[in-house]
Amino acid sequence: SALAMILATGFSLNSLTARAWSPTVQIGLESNDNITKSIQEEKSDFALNASLDFSTLHIINRDWQLSYGGSVQTSAWQEYSGLNLTEIGAHSTLRRKFGLGPYAPRLEMRAEVSHQLSKVEEWSGNWVRVGATFHQRFSPQWQASLNGVHEQLFAKRDVYSTTSTTTTATIDFDLTEEWRISVSTGYSDGDHLAWCRNSWSSFVGTVQWLDGIFGGDWFPYQSKGHTVAGAINLSRAIGPNSTITLSYDISETRSSKNHVYQNQIIRLQLIHAF
């Protein structure tokens, strides 16, 4: 598989000169207006997020680079702690530069495996993600990227086991040396996880497994669907190794049952590379 090939390549390059391990810390706040991902009785909540990523870079030759490392990320929701998730994983990225200079296009191929820990034990499981990103800089101010990711979660309960493929296009514009604005749009197709209630007309009289996250007769529910999303980010460099970013994301999901789920998320993130 692509995952096995990339990871195996990384561990076979012991003879190459590598840079030291480079950790990156990210701390963020998130406000989500529809964490139940529901078509009615949407619930909102606020979360604290944190992540640590560390990797090392191997220079293969003028055109190829390889990096690999590990990461841990976690979330803490203020009202619905059953949504708290923690991931611990390993990743590897193979990079190819086509030509010389800052305007040469670049291709990154990334593979990742991680274990998810959840307060709801049945939501725990293993993630597998494989993706690629194509980068192109057009001028000192403008650059763009196209990213595709296929991911699958193997959870302990089938309702949480999801598979999806997402494609995202992003344009970055550097206003100044410190300020950057980014606009992105994305399309995702696959499994959609939402929470519904037994008292809703579509589910009256049915027996459902309750995970207790939202209390009462709320239960997790999975359906096939596609999502269209957009985002705008404003970033400010606050030093040679730190950036703060304010983001606004909006998305709409349409399921196979003709349900429409809408979502708005506001994020504030601080990223520091050591």
Q: What distinguishing features does this structure have?
A:
single chain, 274 residues, mainly beta, twelve-stranded antiparallel β-barrel, 1 helix, 12 strands, disordered N terminus
Describe the structure.
This protein has 274 residues and is mainly beta. The chain has 1 helix and 12 strands, in the order αββββββββββββ. The chain has one helix at 2-11, and strands spanning 22-32, 45-59, 64-77, 85-97, 106-118, 125-137, 142-155, 163-174, 179-197, 218-237, 242-255, 260-273. It has a 12-stranded antiparallel β-barrel. It is globular, with a radius of gyration of 20 Å. The protein starts with a helix and ends with a strand. Mean pLDDT is 91; it is low at 2-17.
What's the gist of this structure?
The chain is mostly beta strands. It is built from one helix and twelve strands; from the N terminus they run αββββββββββββ. The protein has a twelve-stranded antiparallel beta barrel.
